[in-house]
Amino acid sequence: MYKHRKKIGGWLFFLIAIGLFAVQMGYFFLQSRYFMEYVDNRIFYVINILIVICMVFSIFLLLSVTKNWKVITTSITMVLILLHVGLFINQSYKTKHIVSISPDLKNVLVIKENRESGQARYYRTYFGILARPKESLPYKTKDEFKVKWVEKDIAAVTYKAADNSIHQYIGTYGDRNGGYSYSYVGPSIHGQWKGENARVISAPKGITIDYNGKTEKYSWDSIVQFGTLAVVLVKNNEATWTIALNENFKSNANEPIPPSGEITLYKATMDNNEPITMKYVSAD
After folding, report:
1. How confident is the model at residue 283 (pLDDT cuts 50, 70, 90)?
2. Which residues partner with 170 through β-bridges?
3. What is the full DSSP assignment across 211-270?
């Protein structure tokens, strides 16, 4: 009975090792052909360590190994594991990984920063574990990032640039118009919106923010759109606010009625702060 269980365990470890090896081979193919990467580069070394461990266990359970060979095999295993742990740590020093999962576990935000150059890239994810570079962040970064999911499919990344200026990058993973056409956030929220100590006015000349009695006006040239779900308002070459369309938002663009649902106002700051939910008030 013991030998039977031992064999089953040995074959199980062997199959796991083969499966993980196949994953790595698939990764190499996707990387060379489609420039795919793991969402965290260190996953590569973790999988290699698991392959080594599973293979060693399968050998010990399936084969009759002498004491000397057990010592040799264990020593080689330890060397390989320590080598990969070293590579894992080295990767941590070279690259900062910003990986954040949405509240509904359906979307993953991935940004990788080269610590030496200060260049950060935003990635689109596939199958949860793989990612492909989409674009570089416009400013050299300073190893300081703050991620906030303002909606299930909208992630606001606030970061410091090398010159200490504050910027925001918005990862968007959905749409609000069925995906049939590209839509602009500013015109779709035309009118006044009110939230706690805040008011947003979207008009033909731009967007006005009234927060705690302080009014700021932004022309369309100072408003940067991300996808079809959010815009970032910029003043003096720094991000100041993000406006995002909530999941229940409807522009009603083709109907003679005002937009419905809610929008979110989120201040660009490295301090801890919460998004402000805004409700439609009037067209003027």
Report:
1. confident
2. 156
3. ETTEEEEEEGGGEEEETTTEEEEEETTEEEEEEEE-TT-B--TTTTS--BSEEEEEE--S
